[in-house]
Each structure stands twice: as C-alpha cells, then as structure tokens.
Amino acid sequence: MLRLTRLYSMTIPKDKLKYIPTNGTYPKGFKVGSVSCQVKKNGNPDLSLIYSSYNCNAAGVFTTNKFKAAPVIIDRDNLQSKLNQNFNSIIINSGCANAVTGNGGLNDAREIINYTDKKLGNNVESISNTLTMSTGVIGQRLQMDKIKNGIDQIVTQLDSNHEHWLNCAKGIMTTDTFPKLISKSFQYNNITYNIAGLVKGAGMICPNMATLLGLIITDAPIEHQTLQNLLTNSVNKSFNCISVDGDMSTNDTILSLSNGQSGGEIITENGNLELYELFEKNYNELAIELAKLVVRDGEGATKFITINIKNAKNDLEAQKAANSISNSALVKTAMFGKDANWGRILCAIGYSNIEVNPSTTNVSFIPTDGSKELKLLVNGEPQIVDETRASEILELPDLQIDIDLGLPGDGQCQFWTCDLSHDYVTINGDYRS
Amino acid sequence: MLRLTRLYSMTIPKDKLKYIPTNGTYPKGFKVGSVSCQVKKNGNPDLSLIYSSYNCNAAGVFTTNKFKAAPVIIDRDNLQSKLNQNFNSIIINSGCANAVTGNGGLNDAREIINYTDKKLGNNVESISNTLTMSTGVIGQRLQMDKIKNGIDQIVTQLDSNHEHWLNCAKGIMTTDTFPKLISKSFQYNNITYNIAGLVKGAGMICPNMATLLGLIITDAPIEHQTLQNLLTNSVNKSFNCISVDGDMSTNDTILSLSNGQSGGEIITENGNLELYELFEKNYNELAIELAKLVVRDGEGATKFITINIKNAKNDLEAQKAANSISNSALVKTAMFGKDANWGRILCAIGYSNIEVNPSTTNVSFIPTDGSKELKLLVNGEPQIVDETRASEILELPDLQIDIDLGLPGDGQCQFWTCDLSHDYVTINGDYRS
C-alpha cells in the first residue's frame, strides 16, 4: 500500500487507503492518462483523458442548476445533436470549473474539445467527437495555454494499465482525499464485459469544486438510447441518493461511454432481456459503489450513514424523506456528536413535505457490527432508550438508520450520507486560499 | 447593564447585552411572570405566563411539520373552535417540548391549560381560555407535578412591570444566550397603543429545542379575524424570512393576543384604513425586529447577514432564492471563513428552482459601514474583485448581500441569516447532555 501513497504528492489518509484498488480489469479498447498542466497550484495532475480507438455510444446526466457551466452546456448540446453516437474521448480538467464565464467560457470549452480532436487525429464531421468536463473554482476563465500544453502531452502518454486508470481518477480530484476508481467484469455466453467507473466529489454537489463528476466506461455494445436510459436510471438510484451538504453544483455531470469491444450481441432494453438485466445489475452496482465512495470522502466526515426508508407512499416520497434527513444540519451534527437524538430524524421527515402518519412511524438504529437493532420509535411511541447501548452503536464509524413509515404503497429508498463536523466548517470556510 | 447580567444565573455574552432592553412600555391590562419548576436542570426559569384580566382576541401561526407537538394541536383546535375569541392567557414551559408524546402528551397539554384556567379563576364554558406552548427536548413526557407546582406559584407572582416582562422572556429560553423582548408604542387620535413581543429560538426551527416560539401581545382592540390575518401576513415577512439552520421544528408557534384596553375604535381591515395601516406597520416592524433577534442569537453565529433579492419573477420566487442562499452550508461556511466566494451564492440561487436568466443576474456585497458597494457579478459577468476590499467587508460582523435577478416581475424579498461556525457543530453535536 505504501507504493500507492508515494504515487501521489498528496498524502492520502491511512483510513482511506482501503478504498483505493491495487489492480483492476478495464474496458477493452480504451486508453487513459493524466498530466499536470499547473492549473492546480500544488502541481498535482489536473488534466485527464479517456480515449477509445473505436467509436462509442455516449450518454450524459447533467446538473439541473440554472447556472450551468460551459462544459455542461456544450456536452448536452453535442450529445443531443449526434443522438448519443460517434464520440471517442472525454477530456477533463480540474482546478478551474469554467462556470459563470459567459461566452468566453463557452468558446474555451469548444476550443478544448476541438484541440483534443485534432491532437487525437479524430475524423470530425461537424460536431466534435470529444466530450469535456471541468471542476474547480468558478467565475474564473481557464488558462488555455496551460490546458493546450497539457493536451499536447497527454495524448502521447495514454495507456490501458491499472496505473494509468488510477492516475486518470487522480487527475479529476479537487478536495477529494483519495482517487475514486472501481472496475468490474462479468461474463455471459463466454463473453467478458468490463466496466470502469471514476468519480470525484468530496463536498458533494458544491459550486466551487464543481462536484460531482462521474464517468462510467464500458466495452459492452450498448445501444445508444439504452445507454442513456441505463445511465439516467442508475444515477437516480446512486448519485441522486447521496448527500454531503445538500448543495448542487453548476458542473455536476455523469458521462458514460460504450465502445462494443467486448464483442457479443447488441445490448438493448428490447433485445435479450437476460443479458440486458445482467448488464443493468452490474452497471447499477458500480454506480452505487462509486456514489458511496463520494460519501466516504465527504468533507470532514467521520461517519458513513445509510438511511433505509420503507413503506412510504411511493419511492419518490421515500427519497424525499431520506434526502431531508440527510440534509438536516441538526441530524448531521448529532451524528457527529454521537448523540442518539432521534427526534431530529423524525422532525426532518416531518418537514419533507411527504405523507406521514405519526402513529405508524418507526425509527431504529441498526448497528453495523451485526448486533441487535435499537428501536427508538415504535408506531409513533418513543421507546425507553438504553443510552449506553445507543452510544456504543454511535461509536461505530458506519451507522444504519431504518425508518418504516407504515403506509400502504410500499415506497422505499436507500440513501447514503455523512455527518457534519468541525472539519467541514474549516475546509469550506477557507476553500479558495 | 451589569444589573441585568446578575438578574440571570446564565452569563449573557457581552456583545449581546445591547439587545436586551432596560425598560419598556407594555400593553395595558396584561400581567406576566416566570418561575423555575426545575424541569430545566440548571434551575433557570422554565415556566412563563401571560395573563390579561380582560378577554382577548387571539391568533396563531403554527409549524407545518407533519409531526406536530401536543400544544400545537391543542392550540390550533381551540383557536378554531372559539373563532379566535375569548382567551385570556398563555402558559409556556421550556426544557421539554411535549412533542412525539402520543395521547399521553395531548392529555398533559389539556391538563396544563385546564389547571391554569382553574388557578387564574377563569370562567370557562367548554373550551379553555388558555393557550399553551412547550419548547425543549422532544420524545419525553412533561413532569406534570413540577409544572403544576410551577403554575401554583406563578399565578401569585404576576406583574406588569419591565422586570416581569423580561423574566417572562427568560422563562421561554432554551439554548438562547439572551432573552428577546421588544416593546413599542404609538399614538393615533390621542390614544396610545402598546405592543410587546417575546421570542425564543437560537438554532432556528429545530426539533429538540422546539424553536421557534413567539408572542405578540397588544392592548389595541383588533377585530379577531383581522388579528389572525395581521399575524399570518407579518409572520410571512418576518419569521418566515429568517434561517439559522433550515430545520423546521415540531413546535414552531407564534401566538398573538389583543385585549382592547388601549380604548379607541375597533381596528379592522374594513374600517378606518389609516388607523389599520398604522397599526399594521408597527405590528410588522415589531415582528421583523423579533425575527432579527433570533438570527442575532443563531447558534454559534459570528455574522448577521441580510439578503436582499430584487427583480425576481415574483415575491415568492424572491423568497425561495433567499431561502436557498440562507440554507446553503457552503455559503454559510464561506461567510464564517470571510471568503468572498460569490460562486456559492449564485449556485444556491441556481438550484432554488426559480426562474433565472444568468445574463441579467447581479450580485454585490454592500458594506455595512456605509462604504462603497463591491460588485461581484454584473449581468452574469464575473467582476475582477479586489480581494483586500472583500476581506475588509467580510471582517464586519454585519453583511448585506444584494442580488438583482434582472427579470420583469418586480419580485422582492428581504431575508436574514447567519453563518455556520465550528461552534454550531459543537452546540448541536451535544445538545442533550
């Protein structure tokens, strides 16, 4: 493991080393890499490129923030214009978000993708084969000279090995304390399908760091509309089910590429259902694992909290309740303080604007060491809580909170969040300096 | 001023002494007081009573949280049943919120008002003349013996002087660092009208402390439906325009009483408009001053921030934008860190789900020492910001942020909030112990 920490100039916290893979199997036909353009003042890698020698189908899910960064606008338009087809690369810079930069910023983003096309020798008809993402401080223009120098270098240094994929994940980091990379393979009819995922985002969804960026890359031959639907649905169960601080960025983007180099039949929602569902399962699992890594690295977080809601009116209402709990500063500080203050959980449900029946509501802490559930509220009646037992449960770094709303409708949601600590305040009180 | 700090066993922070009045003129015909029932472990006053020897019209605005505390349910029902008429007292306990306490809690709240009626010698027909409020830890039953002993004492100790009003404000405090009391008088046609306001709420709107409680008491003869409309409208421009942490309590309640002892004509929306508008102006001003005191005492707050939104699509959208900025952990920590990170402000507007046009949006810091405005964003174009100047402005304890959305519609809102500090995390990580 020591080798890994030396790989980066940044010191990775010891308790995070276990989340960094030491090897992986990656989608065939892709080469990746990262370089330092010196946009980041500390000299860490700040430009990453993912390139397929074969044309890819592509999909994207973007922030709904009304102030959209330039790369968000460009990617969304290009995906639409080319009907999610005929892309082969994604170029990502970190350190500057190219957000709220007006027309100049849009031109910069266009120049980046065109310059990348040129350097990759892409055969472009009218619209670029390259997608782009930016993350970092907003309201500042990109230092285009540095970025272009970086592109000149990066195209000469691409490779498909584990080290390159890990460095690629490193190149998209901002306040993240560790690179977030997951790879996954599965077989069907003697064909091996590979998926790789990269993500960045420490203060979830926040303007300056322009979190969250995510990439899901596969060699499976996914039909283009199916890829878009897969991505949209899996984001809804993964990246839309996590929260660090509730802020939503100008740059949030998840992109997906598939180049078909695994071979095998085309995967579509309307074709071989067994294959489709197997692929969907693996794709969704990977998206959820990536999302959980973001929470694991939540700014200043000391606790990883899983919230299970069941028997809500419907799934959407379950998600609203979980989101409200996850964003409550009072719940999050109580968890940081290891205080079994379940009233705050209940209260956050109460103002989430969903249907509740106080007398059918149940709240429990589920210890993550496998010991017995601690019931806090049963059918609206507060239980006499053994505070010593509660403290033991809250001493564990991971916590699960189960909420049964007891309504007909079977709505459910699993959601992940972290606590709110002194360090969150320190990190975010002083981000730009 | 020293006298005041000695009045309470709690030490009041020196910088808060200026918010505590040393005298006041109070509504005629009301007597008030507070005692310690020992529900609060520190022995501070925890039971307050406001009593009018004359029947009052009454109005209430209550939390919209789905988990409503027992006193909220009882008051709302009783106000409705008696058409906002024929009340004469409000009994408030602090230290225990009587929330999520099931039917037992509802019975406790009923017993409190009935017992108060009896001790005051109220001539009750079927529904109590007393309203009630509770604030404190939730999920615990009231210690009724202590409360009843307290009621026995308090009815013998009522008075109408300044000290008693101030102690009454003290008796409703939980994590507040100072009692919040404002009185106001004005004249019309040789008649003097008096209004007094009391409020508690430090972690704004939060489940355990069951913030916010507010009381607006007047001797003006306000017609009962007019009083309810006045209260509803003024809450919308005051208590609904503040935020400390965005959580909304199970107990939030604002009550208003008017006993007509000023004399003069009945004040109604359909009567003497000049008098009505004068009264409305004074009533609204008092509500806004009370609301601002809550922000001044925001848990751990080091900054008082005024947010002005103008040229939104409509007033509601302006309020949504202001609320979103006020609740952003990223904006609040940046303000604590004195970081002129305007991107976070913009971003919070961007996800507030209102209509915006990036290219007509303007953001400025308005220094509260009267010096020149600092433009951060002009028609969507980031300005070159003098960071030294920005730091000077952010060193001031008060900050004003002006946002012009540049849309037709003339929607506007003034909103007040505070920063998010290390101390907020400390206070709320460990509230119950």
Word description of this protein:
Two copies of one chain form a homodimer. Chain A is of the alpha+beta class and 433 residues long. Chain A has two domains: 2-296, L-amino peptidase D-ALA esterase/amidase (4-Layer Sandwich), CATH 3.60.70.12; 304-429, Ubiquitin-like (UB roll) (Roll), CATH 3.10.20. Helices cover 33% and strands 25% of the residues of chain A. The first copy, chain A, is built from twelve helices and 15 strands. Chain A has helices spanning 2-7, 70-81, 102-120, 144-154, 162-170, 224-237, 273-296, 315-327, 329-336, 342-350, 387-395, 422-429; strands at 30-35, 47-62, 87-96, 130-137, 180-188, 191-200, 213-218, 242-243, 253-258, 304-312, 362-367, 374-378, 381-382, 398-404, 411-418. In chain A, the strands form two sheets. In chain A, strands 1, 2, 3, 4, 5, 6, 7 and 9 form an eight-stranded mixed beta sheet that branches. A seven-stranded mixed beta sheet of chain A has the order 8-15-10-14-11-12-13, with helices on both faces. In chain A, a hairpin with a 2-residue loop joins strand 12 (374-378) and strand 13 (381-382). In chain A, helix 2 packs across helix 3 (102-120). The two termini of chain A are 31 Å apart. Mean pLDDT of chain A is 89; it is low at 1-9 and 204-210. Chains A, B: The record marks 135-136 as: Involved in the stabilization of negative charge on the oxyanion by the formation of the oxyanion hole. Chains A, B: It comes from Pichia kluyveri (Yeast). Chains A, B: Catalyzes two activities which are involved in the cyclic version of arginine biosynthesis: the synthesis of acetylglutamate from glutamate and acetyl-CoA, and of ornithine by transacetylation between acetylornithine and glutamate. Chains A, B: This is Arginine biosynthesis bifunctional protein ArgJ, mitochondrial. Chains A, B: GO terms for molecular function: L-glutamate N-acetyltransferase activity; L-glutamate N-acetyltransferase activity, acting on acetyl-L-ornithine as donor.
